[in-house]
Amino acid sequence: MKDKVRKGGGRNQAKADVIGLADGKGFVGMKQADDTSFSVKIQGAGVESFELQVHGFWLVQDAVMALLSRDEVCPRSNLSLTFAGTTLDPHTELQSIKGLKQGAILRLAEEPYTSRSVRLHLARVLELLRASGPQDALREGRSPSVLETLTHSQTAESSLPSGKSLKRSLSNTKTETASQDGAPPEYLLPGSSERPLMALLPQSSQPEAPSYIKDLSLSCWNPPPGHRKLQGDFLYITVVTLEGRRCDITSCPKGFFLNRSTEEVFDPRPAQSVPLCHCFTDLLCHISPAFKQTLTTRKNRLQLPVVEVMPTPYHTLSWLGPPCVSRTHKNTFSRLGLDDQQATQSPDWNEELQAARDLPVSSLEERLQRERALLQVNSAFVRAAAQGAETVVDGFVEPVNGNPEDPAFLWGGLFMNQGAANVMFGGERGRRAAQRLELKGVQAYNNIVRQQGLHTLPTAVIDYRGVRLTAQGLAPGLEGAEQEQEQEQEQEAETTPASRGLLYGVNSKTQESPQRRQLLEHLAHAAKSLSIQRHVVMLPNNYKASLFTSVDTQGLLGADGRFYILDVFRTFPADANFCPEVETISLTDNGEEKSVKSCEEDETKSSAKEGWPESYHAYSGLPKSFPHALCRLRPELVELFIQHKHCQFTQRVKELLDENGGFEECATSRDSRSTDAVRTACKETGSVSNIIFEMRLNPNIFSPGVSFPASESESTKLQERLLREAAAFIITHQIPEFVEHCLQSNEAPMDGTSLEQVLHLRGINLRYLGYVAKTVSQSEHKERLRHLMRTVIGDIFIRSTRRVFNNFLQGVDVPSLSAAVSHFLCCLLVPHFTPASVGEETKKKSRRRGRGAGASESTPWSTLTGAELWNLVCQDADETYCIADRLGSGPNHLVEHYGLQKISLLREFCLKTGVQLRLRDYFLDNQNKAPIGPDDILNIFPVVKHLHIPTTDALAAYRAALTFIQKGLLDKAHERLKEAAYLFGRVCDNLHPDACHCHSMLARVTYLLGKPAEARSIQLTAVVISERVLGFDHANTIQQYALLAVYMFAGGETALAQKCLLRARLLVLTVHGEDHPYVATLDSCLGLVLTGDQSEKFLQNALRLNTSFFGPTNLYTALSHHMLAQKMCSKGDYRSAMTHEKEAFAAFTSLFGEDHSQTNCSKEFLCTITKQAVKVERSLRQAGADCTEQAVECITPSSDTVLEQMVLVTGIRRITQSDKLQEYKQKHKELKAAVAKELGFDLETKQLISLDSLNWAEKGSDQETGSSQEAEEKGNLGSESQEVLKVEETSAESAAKVSSDDHVVEPAEQQPQILDEEESDDVSPGAEVQEVNGGSEVRAEEEETDGESSSTASGEIKSEATADELKSEKVNGEINGAVNVPVSPSALKSKGTWADIVSKVPVANGKANTDQAVNGVADSITANGAAEE
């Protein structure tokens, strides 16, 4: 079913939804100085009196909208508020009403209906009667929430079906318990190859939506005749009640009444037995007792949380539908005509969006209302775009132009087109790329902070049935454009030039005007934010155009007085790796062409090679051509590359100053040496300024057909060099660092979506997937990276398949779509599949349905074979990714060689194409019968790419909380996280990915503060948000379930914790398979939670996976050995326990050294095991041979021990390393003394937070911020490890980095900082060099740091936030985010100078050779033992 576009578009609704959680359901912890909330009593209009929490800044209409959303009032509408007998003006602020205070009584007054408002009221009634049931989300293709079903008390033992029940017929799909003792089902045990889909979406515990009435439709006497219309009749409605009574109802200005009409006789007079009612449901309650009882039952039932019932802003596709839709599909109210009425509405989407953008932003409340309005408008626009794309592609809309190659359509206020296939851009592939890049360009201009002058049209890109459409709001008319002839006459007469219309662009011939100058100012500001260089291009007739954008971009002044920017698809610079060496043409002043590359042959070669690393083409094969000519760099890559160049700049300045006597001498000599050093470094690194570092890139370089004046030849050569360096930066830095991260992390990407996210975070385009696979295959650790290779190959295969599928669908008529899609999937996934069997099956089913002879064998799609399809996919993969030989000859090659699962490939295909399958188990290796039939294809949904509306204040509070977390100030972080969660609720009702990450982090901090029950409640919300917004089987959802299990176990809910872990394992098995590092994390937790032999199986599997992925001396492997040792002790098998603990002890010794507390803990536990083993052996010998049933004393870990180990395994708390503590302390003191001596500072007066003051090995739980309990026993590895995880609230050490997987990652080796107490709270988490009263922290010398900064002539650098820190906050909480731990002690090897401090800036992308932190990124860990959570 399609999402309906609400009447009035988005802005008017946004006003209605601004209140959100402000009715008392918001976060209680939010502190606002200007909070003027108070409660009032509501009476009247036939509702029971109740209290409503209002705010003084609300308008009266805001209070009315809040009332209409209350269950006590719904579905009443057309109401007003009165106070003291006076009707209140809707636009009056509540705080300005005299006498309105706490406890005041407001009365609801019923207002007369109009023809429009009565239809709106009926729409509200239908929304109530159409209350969604559990299967409705699946029917509409929306991702459901399974958590409520999983944790419901009535189904606590039946949420995971057994293997036998999954194979039964759909008539008996009720889940059953796997066994009486609650053991996991067989398909979830380690080593099982069964992947049942029926278990993914268990039967909901919520009842289906009840039936209120049998039928509701427009009466046959509708519309009212003229004489009745003059008496106020609006509509005649026919109702058939559950009792079988047929009634005709009249709607009029006063409400609704029962008339005397029947099917044969028209009698509009009111019936005497039933009164006139203002609300339609009140009248139905008088007519039908069954309706009244059902409505009362609905209002009294337990309400679900808001995040479970509120509609999500955007459609999150569910690739699985209900098991049987034919039995439940019934639309009782379709004949009322309201849907058709709303479909004819054509909102002005552009005006709606621009009006929301123009809302004031001076106060917090105004910003929240503006952001909520923007989100509401954009989400309504996206829903309309998706519905419009379906309507257009299905053939219900005629094009408005006569161009068959580029048809354009108007529907619902939207302009939709495909765009012309330009040969210069690469035909069809280039057209699709242009549509995608246009959306990215619009997003880039929308993201510019404080950019109020430039406007963009609302834009979305929709893929549906193989067709890609771009939907935009209608641009306002160009004032003056209709008077073009008049303008030309004015110009000829030398009058004032036209100041309206097209003001900017290569085709603009408008003379200077105040409006044009104003537009150029806005463009210059935007170019600075986007790092675009101002440049000059040559146009025909020797006309020079100065541009701040690409040559395609146009700037215009609309009829609404706003400046608009269009055609921004080439906003970002070209990717030189995939650009054929386009000859850059320079034109002399007289118009003669002069090739920049044609001066002399040797100069040609040198200039062509300038910017590429040595032997770059030999080992990478780049540059090379690509199927389309619109390969552009990602904005993340541009930012990271600029930071990389800044690192080179600062390093070069340091070298030049050292060559000329050092910084102190250069700074005090008052000569030009320091200035010359900065100028030289600027020139060498490509800065556009010669006095400060400023990097800009030209988007028109390597653009075919673009020429530059001869005067710009030097700048052009420089820009070509920079773009080549940026392209090589991807191959030489970003891809190797990504692979290294996956080598160390247990949270590497597990599907195409998470892979795309982490690659984009590092600025790597998906066209580099082949080079990622090549890097993995050439790595010496390729066996440990097999999970990454599996994910990359699977994503390449599905993306190439999608392009083939898009072309395949173009030759399929609508009646054959289901058969064609199922046939395509069979050819794709079933080896040696022949289409004959499918054709016969289709014919039989078509005859049974009365559709004639069915699909003809001569139909092109029906003749496709598996071999032909595989060849097409391999050909596309070779053209795009250059890895055709890696795909083999069929799907079995992917399964056998890479370990890919066909069910995972099927899921990826459906998510990327919008295909929805029937929920059942598929056996894809069956060659005798088609495993997927036409009846299994339930629907094809549009896949929409849309703009993302930022939540500025909520994100700011969230980032501030991360800052406090990095400094160990958990109490302050907790307050800011609660504030951020409240703000997210105000803007988007928490239904946003960022809100999910915020709630997840809030739950962690809450747990670390010793509040597990509160953490559990918050984490429940995070899981529901992730399921509904990201997807029920998204990678982030898997992680959120694992974290929820920890908090549930902390609260004593062991059974529910077990179910959450089993749910997470089921999702991982379906999404990726068992061979993934994160499965080891889940199996470790399951081994701790479960009892019996299955517990040991999971722990053994976790050990096997950790050893396979990380080696025998890794921390994960050591923890697995230790947990297995504990498990063996609980069984009395001390010999095996000793073996495992010896391995753990050896690993801890290798990792941390002999003096580390973790090593000592393991050593003591090993001694305990040894003593117990000797004791047991002695007792058995003393008992003699006659006593065969001698009981063996067992050592069983306590629940607190198990909990702390789960906390460590899941990464909620980290272990730190301090084996070289004294060495680092001594080196730091030496370096500090050297810097102080050079600068002449007296460090004795500075307050130094020393490592000794932490006293980490002796601190108790009452002194901790991040620990909930003390170490309990010698064998408790998790509890003992707390001694190195204490967080000092007074400590301002900011060396930790928060990774994008929602974990706080420890730095490798941390140095103390010199901080004043009053300044410790103001330390920027992004700055690696902090100067506080002359004190400083010097970072690693060879550490590669990339930061966007500005530099003065004296060499002082001010660093801004790093790219990864900014990006990690967006995806914080995802399993597969990028992790950066840029810390190294190597700076201590050389004498520190002031130039060392100047030359360091924040790290943006990390380094592959840096030491990394625990839980997937650790080879060595911090030096002081301070934990950051």
3D structure, described in words:
With 1429 residues, the chain is an alpha+beta fold. 42% of the residues lie in helices and 9% in strands. The strands form nine sheets. A five-stranded mixed β-sheet has the order 2-1-5-3-4, covered by helices on one side. The chain has a five-stranded antiparallel β-sheet with strand order 11-12-15-14-26, sandwiched between helices. A four-stranded antiparallel β-sheet has the order 6-7-8-9, covered by helices on one side. β27 (1297-1298) and β28 form a beta hairpin. α35 runs antiparallel to α36.
Helix content: 40-55%
Q: Low-confidence parts lasting 5 or more residues at pLDDT below 50?
A: 1-34, 153-180, 479-499, 596-608, 849-856, 1218-1222, 1243-1429
Give the overall shape, derived from the CA principal axes. Answer: globular
Number of E-state strands? 30
In angstroms, what is the radius of gyration?
A: 34 Å
Number of H/I helices: 47
**What spatial order of strands do you see in the largest sheet?**
2-1-5-3-4
Structural class by sheet pairing and helices: alpha+beta
Distance between the termini: 44 Å
Strand content: 5-15%
Average of the residue pLDDT scores: 77
Major sheet details: 5 strands, mixed
